[in-house]
């Protein structure tokens, strides 16, 4: 028996006409697939609009209420899609994250899935129904509604695919697949036919928002093959799967960029044991993800520490930084939102020295200063001024012949 999970993103269900199109496509798939689960995001820009409404009420909305508000977006689309399916004679039932038992931790607005029950989903599938699930939302073991972070419907879909042992998970979106760079920034970017979980994970974590990085982590842990493809036509998209199944392994696979981070600098920090632990411990306790970290060579027993965080967390980071700066006797703190992170991703970089040097030279020749660097075996990231971000992507895409 075949079982597939399909996910349709916000742009694919932006209006009634598009919802009807999605319904037609889902009903068509059901003719070939025995058991079909469909995860939907909120219509178009709904999530942004809801956030804007909250902002007009308060600059500091309680995170619990933010989740109550944001989760409504996906409720609208799941019900409308189920109606559209029933209207065309396909038997469908919609379910919220709570009904599906997507149990999360208590990290409101960026909750992590702990467990997926899916008992009711299985019952409905056995009756032959298409189950339409509201993406992005979950519930804590105390019954509080949570959301999974921006782009979280991808993770709902993959988590369900893992729990139900689906054959694969299809991510339908507004581009034809995963590209060598964001096609909206690099017009010459081309679709990649297949990419490994590891490379995709680095791409997602460095700004290729076509998949939420947690969804790729989930897919990798549970070995769920992902097919990212267009919701507007039938063509093959990009397969994301384990490395040993990938035929072609280019040195550099993609260039990504991310303007959603901010740089925080602690100046004149006493250079002694325990200081970094205190600073990053406090951030971890507040559930704040820290990305790049650099610490300078100490001069006169003082050093500078810089790190990047998501701009959405900056308000909390400022508060925590003020307190910690005092307690660790830092001389000053700086906060800079005008940065962009640009990254090269490629499994072949592991065995090909010189890629970093070529990247830095290309940026230098184009007059761009590098402010921070971090590397992993298959990724090199640099921080540049925000206004240079997109240009950096274009020149690197060209330099590496992508
Ligand atoms: P959805 O609403 O379907 O979830 P998203 O907006 O979250 O769609 O993700 C799709 C978008 O991701 C594309 O429109 C594209 O601009 C962007 N994107 C960024 N980097 C890449 C990449 N390397 N390949 C494909 N799309 C990318
Ligand atoms: N609607 C949510 C968002 O805009 C979740 C998603 O689209 O995946 O982030
Ligand atoms: Mg998305």
Protein described:
The structure is a single chain. The protein has a domain at 3-174: 3-Layer(aba) Sandwich (Carbamate kinase). It contains twelve helices and 20 strands. With 402 residues, it is an alpha/beta fold. The longest helix is centred in the first third of the chain and has 25 residues, at 63-87. Strand 11 and strand 12 form a beta hairpin. The model has no long low-confidence stretch (mean pLDDT 95). An eight-stranded mixed β-sheet has the order 3-6-2-1-9-11-12-10, sandwiched between helices. It has a four-stranded mixed β-sheet with strand order 5-4-7-8. The protein has a four-stranded antiparallel β-sheet with strand order 13-18-20-19, with helices on both faces. It is globular and about 75 Å long. Adenosine-5'-diphosphate binds at residues 9-12, 41, 151, 173-175, 178-179, 181-184, 208-210, 254.
List keywords for this structure.
binds magnesium ion, binds adenosine-5'-diphosphate, alpha/beta, single chain, eight-stranded mixed sheet, four-stranded mixed sheet, Carbamate kinase, globular, 402 residues, binds aspartic acid, 20 strands
Secondary-structure class = alpha/beta
CATH superfamily of the domain at 3-174: Acetylglutamate kinase-like
CATH topology of the domain at 3-174: Carbamate kinase
**Overall residue-averaged pLDDT value:** 95
Radius of gyration: 22 Å
What is the top-level CATH class of the domain at 3-174? Alpha Beta
Distance between the amino and carboxyl termini: 40 Å
Number of strands: 20
Strand content: 25-35%
Oligomer classification: single chain
